Amino acid sequence: QVQLVESGGGLVQAGGSLRLSCAFSGRTFSSYAMAWFRQAPGKEREFVASIGTSTTYYAESVTGRFTISRERAKNTVYLQMNSLKPEDTAVYYCNAKNGGNNYWGQGTQVTVSS
Q1: Are the C-beta atoms of 22 and 34 separated by less than 8 Å?
Q2: Would you say residue 85 has pLDDT above 90?
Q3: Contact 51, 77 (CB under 8 A)
Q4: Burial 73-105 (b: 16+ CB within 10 A, else e)
Q5: Which residues contact 13 (CB under 8 A, 6 or more apart)?
Q6: How far, in Å, CA of 32 to CA of 70, rounded?
Q7: CA distance 40 to 44
Q8: Does residue 54 register a pLDDT over 90?
Q9: Mean pLDDT for the chain overall
Q10: pLDDT band of 53, cuts 50, 70, 90
Q11: DSSP string covering 58-113
Q12: Local structure of residue 15 (DSSP, 8 states)
């Protein structure tokens, strides 16, 4: 069973930066594609960024501002968020996927004040 634990959320002013971390355990980290999603109040959960072995994908709304990376030695995936905007406010969720197996973390709150 895969376990995902997010950290790094918080309150930041517009234009600031945060780095989210997601610690992976329970299976072989390199076998999973990793992603970040987010859910704002009253909205559906939406894709933010993903990373496979090396290929990365980003939602248009965060391209150029967010960077996803993974560190195999620490079984951790990161989301570096720069130039944050109030509309980035949401609960951010880590996701791990391998075929039909799909796992979620508990989420970490990011709040961007204007």
Answers
A1: yes
A2: yes
A3: yes
A4: eebbbbbebeebeeebbbbbbbbbbeeeeebeb
A5: 112, 113
A6: 11
A7: 7
A8: no
A9: 97
A10: confident
A11: E-TTTTTTEEEEEEGGGTEEEEEE-S--GGG-EEEEEEEEETTEEEE---EEEEEE
A12: T
